[in-house]
Amino acid sequence: MTAIVACFIAGLSTAAFLTLWFVISYRELAHKKLGVAAAAEQVQMHRTLFRQARGGPDAKTAKRMFDTSRLIYAEAAKCYNNTLKKPIYLFPGLIMGFRLLSETNAKF
After folding, report:
1. Which H or E element spans position 70?
2. Cα-based distances in Å from 71 to 31, 48, 103
3. Is residue 33 within 8 Å of residue 80, measured between CB atoms?
4. pLDDT tens across 24-37, in order?
5. Cα(first)–Cα(last) distance of the chain, in Å?
6. How far is CA 2 from CA 7, 9, 59, 67, 105, in A?
7. Would residue 56 be called left, alpha or beta, if left means φ above 0 and alpha means ψ between -120 and 50 degrees?
8. CB atoms within 10 A of CB 89
9. What is the mean pLDDT of each run of 10 residues along the chain (108 residues)?
């Protein structure tokens, strides 16, 4: 009877540990991925504005804003990838479907 109770407690604590590990990993990776998605939206917006401003008086400023937003996207993707590569986030992240992102060849 004592062995059954000990196995039950060990199983319960292991299940709680795994659940917390996956929940915390999901929260962290999802937060980082939302930041990357927001940066991608900014790049799309600035790309559209740059295309509209070509040949106009604001072309230089629009180009600079577009380049800046691309750098921000690259930094956000790098931060997400670095987080995903950490051993504590890698295993649960891969199981939950998080994958490495390209820092330069984004689909805008």
Report:
1. helix 59-85
2. 19, 17, 9
3. yes
4. 999 999 999 999 99
5. 61
6. 9, 11, 77, 66, 59
7. beta
8. 21
9. 93 97 97 96 94 89 94 95 96 95 69
Residue type at 50? F
Q: Chain-centre distance of CA 93, in angstroms?
A: 11
CB 80 within 8 A of CB 92: no
Q: Tokens in use for 90?
A: 């890698």
pTM over 0.90: no
Angle (deg, nearest 10), helices 59-85 and 87-95:
100
Tell the residue number behind the tokens 């991608």, with chain if given: 40
